[in-house]
Amino acid sequence: MPIHDWTRVRANRFHHFHQEWTMGIARALNQGLLPDGYSALADQVTGGPVPDVVTLSPSGSLAGPAGGVAVIDAPVRSRVQVEAEAAVYARKANRVTVTHPDGVVVAVIEIVSPGNKDSRHAARSFARKAAEFLFAGVHLLIVDLFPPSRRDPQGAHKLIWDRIRDEPFELPADKPLTVAAYAAGVPIRAYVEPVAVGDVVPDLPVFLTPDRYVTCPLNATYDQSWAAFPKPLKGQLEAPPSVT
Fold first, then answer.
1. pTM for the complete prediction?
2. In sequence order, what E strands does the chain have?
3. Where exactly are the structural domains of the chain?
């Protein structure tokens, strides 16, 4: 199944696909791809930069104050009102963590959400956390199916790599999306595959040590997640590109 143009739809639709794909990757790794004793778990992304991953309770489950004014009863009025839907879904997204038999996190698989690049702060925070994983010895696999913006003009890899080593990198003009695997050894190594809408998602390594890895079935799990994607929502993504 070729990569779809996810910029055509709202963030909530990619969020649903993202969650399905994340679970599919974890399921595939646990069904015989990982060595004995290793586990792949889907965990909610949190604000902390440290490699140990925690799952937070959704804020909506907490009781609100008894007083105050309900927005639905008295809408707030101001000259300018803006929303950041993509950023909200980025905070709700899952990542896959691969744990050693001793329970230590050895690798993280992260599918980039629109909200990871929705603002300068979000882009810098994403890159900082990725670099901190690598400096802490946690290997990474990053999948970025969204084109570069002014906040990441050469994509997610360049954003991350600039925090590790300042060197030239430029995406091919016809391959603006990025899939990259990182081995957190000495030195840190990056294996980058530029791709485009219409390409298949390449299967890249999930490193367990700096010199040992298993291949992550990104393409097969993308296909399975697309098959499970609600049929009424597929039309906008399957339509041919408009001619201008």
1. 0.81
2. 39-44, 94-99, 105-111, 139-144, 177-183, 189-195, 205-209, 212-215
3. 6-51+83-231
